[in-house]
Amino acid sequence: MDSSPVTAVPLRTARLDLEPLRLGHAAEMAGVLADPALHVFIGGAPLAEPELRDRYARMLAGPADPGTAWCNWVLRLRDQGGAVGTVQATVTGAEAEIAWVTGTAWQGRGLAKEAAGALADWLRGRGVPVLVAHVHPDHLASAAVATAAGLAPTDGYVDGERRWEWRAA
After folding, report:
1. Which domains does the chain have, with CATH numbers?
2. Measured between alpha carbons, how far is residue 129 from residues 51, 88, 168 in Å?
3. 3-state DSSP helix/strand/coil percent for the chain, to nearest 5?
4. Is the pLDDT of residue 100 over 60?
5. d(CA 166, CA 23)
6. pLDDT score for 81
7. How confident is the model over 132-154, as a mean pLDDT?
8. Cα–Cα distance between 17 and 163 in angstroms, integer?
């Protein structure tokens, strides 16, 4: 595994620019994440811009554990210029837990698959040997995203969500 600290860098896919998170994203992302239906599987409730800005400030400050890195990106649909969701990776030792959220207005277009695939490929390219995601067993769309990113379901569950993983050969 690459021994340099893992930090979010700009990534690009066929349709998306993955921009490392910054405080200035809060205003736009509050709208992207505003639909209460989006939170059925991920929990919580939509946050107003000030609360989202506070959350982003905590995320950007990083974890207390120096052996853990939080990498967060905002997904920007290149042809329209607007934000459509997020991807993130929590890297601890030799394992990265990944997650994705696409705003409800942009779901069903394969954007989460594209972004999560780019994130997984980037982590693999850095030599991270284990990728993990936790997916609610009823969330078929997220299961499809995990599969597209190369992860497979395991028998493990955490807080009612199934553990999916990919391991380097």
Report:
1. 11-167 (3.40.630.30)
2. 35, 17, 5
3. 35, 35, 35
4. yes
5. 31
6. 86
7. 97
8. 28
Cβ-count burial 107-119 (b if 16+ within 10 Å, e if not): beeebbbbbbbbb
Three-state DSSP class for residue 52: helix
- Here the tokens at position 77 are 């649909």
Helix-helix angle 111-125:140-148, to 10 degrees = 40
Q: Chain-centre distance of CA 124, in angstroms?
A: 15
Q: Tell me how many degrees the CA angle 87-89-91 measures, rounded to the nearest 5.
A: 175
Residue 43 has pLDDT above 90, yes or no: no
What are phi and psi for residue 128, nearest 5 degrees?
A: -70, 120
Q: Which residues pair with 130 in a beta bridge?
A: 95, 167
Write the CB contacts of 67 (distance below 8 Å, at least 6 apart in sequence). 92, 93
Mean pLDDT of 76-86: 94
pLDDT tens digits along 1-11? 555 678 999 99
Task: Give me 32's structure tokens.
Answer: 């992207």
Between strands 68-77 and 16-20, the pairing is antiparallel
For 84, the enclosing helix (H) or strand (E) is strand 83-92
